[in-house]
Design a protein that fits this description.
Layout (H helix, E strand, L loop, with lengths): L1 H16 L3 H34 L5 H12 L3 H12 L14 H38 L3 H11 L1 H16 L3 H7 L9 H11 L2 H35 L1
Length: 237
């Protein structure tokens, strides 16, 4: 019994050390999809978060409610909505991206954008309230306000980016609906783990699980290192 318990772990390490081609392909696609989705979500989410925090305009409360709603929306529901939109009979069916990595990037982006908006808005709102008297007295325009907030919040924004990446790469529900978990095409780590576990192929599932855990560990180490580095740089200045 004891040996049987450790067998999947041993086989998993053997697969990783041998750089199994299929395994490496799954890891590579996972990283490409998630990094692209995070980049898109940060490009969209952080400016929106800064605008919502620093400017009061008609419709701002509605945008906040919508972003917060998507923040708590189940991934499978998001995946279903995207599936309906990009299916052959859907309004975006002409794009022909269903069951492709592009559909998976779209799904992860939609899931992570609200997180990017909500977290960055909180950071920017705190800083804007702190600097508001100074901005008003100096007559700083909206664009320069946002730039100042971004520079001053750079440590927190890096942490937000890493948190968004952790959220994206661990997603399974939405990507399996719009990606289809097709071998050598749209199979990523989370969907492969679900599939291999259902097949009883625990070695491959465990290998991918170890990679995901390693990525989570590296994300946390990177977050701590960057926070320490920027704090030290700020003190030196």
């Amino acid at each position: 019994m004891f040996l049987d318990f450790w067998t999947p772990f041993k086989l998993a390490f053997d697969l990783l050390l041998s750089s199994d081609t299929e395994l490496m392909g799954i890891i590579d696609l996972s990283l490409k999809v998630s990094l692209t989705a995070v980049f898109i979500s940060l490009v969209i989410g952080m400016p929106l978060g800064a605008i919502l925090a620093s400017k009061k305009f008609f419709g701002a409360p509605v945008l906040i409610v919508i972003s917060n709603t998507f923040l708590s929306m189940p991934p499978v529901v998001v995946g279903l909505l995207i599936y309906i939109l990009i299916s052959r009979s859907g309004p975006l069916g002409w794009l022909e991206i269903l069951y492709t990595p592009y559909a998976m990037i779209l799904a992860q982006s939609i899931l992570v954008v609200p997180m990017s908006i909500a977290l960055s808005r909180q950071i920017f709102e705190t800083l804007n309230n702190e600097y508001k008297p100074l901005f008003t007295s100096l007559g700083v325009n909206a664009f320069r306000r946002i730039m100042v907030l971004v520079v001053d919040a750079r440590i927190a924004l890096i942490t937000i980016g890493l948190a968004c990446f952790g959220r994206a790469i661990s997603e399974v529900g939405a990507v399996i609906i719009v990606g289809g978990n097709i071998r050598h095409s749209t199979r990523v780590m989370t969907t492969a783990i679900a599939l291999e576990t259902s097949k009883g192929e625990l070695a491959i599932a465990m290998a991918l699980g170890l990679v995901l855990l390693s990525i989570a560990l590296l994300v946390n180490i990177a977050s701590q290192f960057l926070r320490h580095y920027f704090k030290k740089a700020a003190l030196d200045v």
